[in-house]
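Researcher: Next entry: Ligase-associated DNA damage response exonuclease (Autumnicola tepida).
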Amino acid sequence: MELMSQHKTPPLLVFNEKGIYCAEADVYLDPWKPVNKAIISHGHADHSRWGHKKYITHHKNVPIIRHRLGDIEVSGKDWNETFTINNVKFSLHPAGHIIGSSQIRVEHKGEVWVFTGDYKVEDDGVATPYEPVKCDTFITECTFGLPAFKWMPQEEVFAEINNWWKQNQRDGRTSVLFGYSLGKAQRLLKHLNPEIGKIFTHGAVENMTEVIRPYCDLPETTKITRETKKEEIKGNMVIAPPSAHGSPWIKKMVPYVTASASGWMTFRGARRRRAIDKGFVLSDHCDWQGLLASIEATGCEKVICTHGYTDIFSRYLIEKGYDARTEETQYEGETGEQETKSEQEEKEN
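Model: Predicted structure:
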């Protein structure tokens, strides 16, 4: 009996210094250091990094990561398409986080694991809506894994945003709304009311939006360049990444009012620290109830909490009867969705 216990089957997925590793297939999921073969959940910089020899991802994410990472060897898959590597079955399932974002299902010898990457359960009209996937072990983010995080329906948030824009226009001010160039910016564009005025974009937002337009019906936008005159922008809407705040680029918007669309706007202190005039609570991640409902829907017994409020959230799951634990990763939730250095250099181009 002692000999048998010494030869326990290793876990299907393990966390090591390079990322989440499947030894049976010799493949990594969202690795943070260069590897030979990587399955990528979505296009944000903390999950899709440069330097891997081969990338596998959803086909809608292929042009996104090519835009961000350059000339890479990448193959695209459809939702629910099974592909086998060394007798391990993989498939991608909608995560609802941003366009092309996937949960990665891994099956071997009757055991099923699901890695969510980042995900949200509310249908934003841009990403393919989240679908729960049955599994034994569920690897979940918990970026907003505190009961304090409870999202309002997005219809109410966008009504607030459009009313804010109208009021600023009446006051003769330009509305500058900050959101990550990939994901949040396109969600904002999808739900802004273009009847109020023109929508202008920062270079990083415009360039990413052009990559995504073939997959999503978005309103007309105008990229701000050196030739754009201040008078053209006044009273209209400007969508820009958070890094543009406080930069010389924004001076062209004077007089302007700023706002940020983020789950962190739940806390007033976050607004003050970022010197933002207005905060709209809008996240591309699950809130507390969304996380719990998603986990329950999988029917899993084991839960691994990666990034966010991991300790608090895993302790709560243990109290609820789950076999839950935490693992260290280099994923950063909403803070990891900043534009890359090359995109920051697009500010006025």
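Model: Note for the record: Residues 154-170 form the longest helix (17 residues).
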